[in-house]
């Protein structure tokens, strides 16, 4: 990451920097010019653009821990160090830390040479990255926006490829083995030969089993898995341990990147961000084993890990609506009031545990003309209309009729595993 941070200061990339400046993406160049014209930015604006681009080093959680990201003076020192350090010395230092070479202490002269700006691509001015620590309102806002962009970059980097068709850098596909729960690499030699390489590395095995990882609009992390059932003795426990390691790795990159020293009141604190683990279709109990492993490895986040029903077979439109909806946060009296309304429709509400039955329930609003469910699609959700306004259009040529408030919609299809037998539309 230091190479990319240094490259933006290389005169060889002046044409590229000029092109980025002229493009004015997001109005950034204009904003920097405006700050300079108002006397709020003492540095040369195009130099600040380069410094902003060098924040790409922050995508590395090892190079820029979240504690440094939250401390502008420490972040400024880290950035100056990244941009002015000799890359060969950094590489040797990293290899020593990994144990590949015997670590040898640097003498003072060697340390000064490693940190000397003259060894960088281009010497930095004394006020380099000064906008990070200036303190004036406009520059404090610039710094906050830049740091938040790094937070988003870290999260995006953690979610990259996970949940897609996982491939190596050589474009070999990676799968999870249904027998032992290990990772399988499909290696091709020419067009006619295919080799399957099985590895038991825990991280590789866990990542191969990730079917999806995403951040919801609520700020919560949702992770799904390809499989939960494995045939070899002990394989399920092995797969659960591997999955737990990867879940912890993802949440460190995604959720912990949004930890702040002082979280503004309008933002959701990282400590309140949930980690939803979707049950697998072949063995719903698998994610409960994963949660147990997470609790063993990091008890501090165990309370925020919540197994949740799978959305793998849900109609995409219904899935998107569910994830966009807010989790139901009703107090117990309001829940009981809803159950009382439902009981008057014939629903056996007395059998429902109002304390626990509302877990994973969400509240969605529909606009006129919106389709709630489409006939012929898989039945996955059961809906409870809280008022009039829905019309039901059954298959088979039957007349449409209004949906009654409080009456369950879709329960028959979900219970029987059938497709939707009607289209339901919001008329108002």
Describe the structure.
The chain is an alpha+beta fold and about 425 residues long. It folds into three domains: about 1-85 and about 120-155, no CATH class; about 175-310, no CATH class; about 325-425, Jelly Rolls, CATH 2.60.120. Helix content is about 40%, strand content about 15%. The chain has helices spanning about 1-5, 15-25, 30-35, 45-55, 65-70, 70-85, 85-95, 110-115, 135-160, 200-210, 235-255, 285-295, 315-325, 330-345, 410-415, and strands at about 175, 185-190, 195-200, 210-215, 220-225, 275-280, 305-310, 325, 360-365, 370-375, 390-395, 400, 420-425. A hairpin with a 6-residue loop joins β1 and β2 (about 185-190). Residues about 110-120 have low confidence and may be disordered.
Radius of gyration: 27 Å
Q: Give the ordered list of helices and strands.
A: HHHHHHHHHEEEHEEHEHEHEHEEEEHE
Please state how the strands of the largest beta sheet are arranged side by side: 4-5-6-7
Q: What class, by secondary structure content?
A: alpha+beta
Taking the sheet with the most strands, its summary is: 4 strands, mixed
């Amino acid at each position: 990451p230091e190479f990319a941070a240094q490259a933006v200061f290389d005169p060889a990339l002046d044409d590229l920097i000029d092109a980025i400046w002229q493009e004015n993406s997001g109005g950034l160049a204009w904003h920097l010019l405006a700050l300079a014209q108002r006397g709020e930015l003492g540095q040369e604006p195009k130099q600040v653009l380069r410094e902003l681009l060098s924040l790409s080093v922050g995508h590395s959680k090892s190079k820029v821990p979240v504690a440094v990201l939250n401390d502008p003076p420490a972040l400024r020192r880290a950035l100056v160090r990244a941009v002015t350090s000799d890359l060969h010395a950094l590489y040797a230092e990293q290899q020593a830390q990994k144990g590949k070479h015997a670590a040898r202490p640097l003498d003072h002269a060697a340390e000064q040479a490693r940190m000397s700006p003259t060894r960088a691509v281009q010497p930095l001015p004394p006020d380099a990255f000064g906008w990070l620590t200036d303190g004036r309102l406009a520059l404090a806002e610039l710094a906050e926006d830049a740091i938040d962009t790094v937070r988003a970059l870290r999260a995006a980097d953690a979610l990259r490829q996970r949940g897609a068709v996982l491939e190596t850098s050589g474009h070999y596909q990676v799968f999870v083995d249904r027998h032992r729960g290990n990772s399988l690499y499909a290696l091709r030699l020419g067009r006619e030969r295919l080799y399957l390489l099985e590895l038991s590395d825990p991280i590789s095995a866990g990542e191969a089993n990730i079917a999806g990882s995403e951040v919801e609009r609520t700020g919560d992390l949702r992770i799904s898995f390809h499989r939960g059932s494995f045939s070899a003795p002990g394989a399920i426990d092995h797969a659960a341990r591997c999955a737990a390691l990867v879940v912890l790795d993802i949440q460190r990159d995604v959720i912990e990147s949004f930890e702040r020293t002082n979280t503004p009141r309008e933002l959701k604190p990282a400590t309140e961000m949930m980690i939803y683990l979707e049950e697998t279709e072949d063995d719903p109990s698998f994610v409960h084993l994963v949660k147990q492993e997470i609790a063993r490895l990091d008890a501090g986040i165990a309370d925020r890990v919540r197994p949740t029903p799978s959305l793998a077979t849900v109609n995409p439109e219904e899935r998107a609506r569910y994830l966009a909806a807010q989790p139901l946060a009703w107090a117990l009296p309001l829940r009981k009031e809803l159950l009382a309304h439902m009981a008057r429709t014939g629903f056996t509400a007395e059998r429902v545990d109002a304390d626990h039955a509302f877990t994973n329930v969400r509240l969605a609003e529909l606009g006129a003309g919106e389709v709630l469910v489409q006939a012929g699609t898989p039945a996955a959700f059961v809906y409870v209309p809280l008022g009039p306004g829905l019309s039901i259009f059954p298959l088979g040529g039957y007349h449409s009729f209004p949906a009654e408030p409080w009456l369950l919609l879709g329960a028959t299809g979900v219970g029987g595993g059938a497709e939707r037998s009607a289209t339901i539309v919001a008329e108002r």
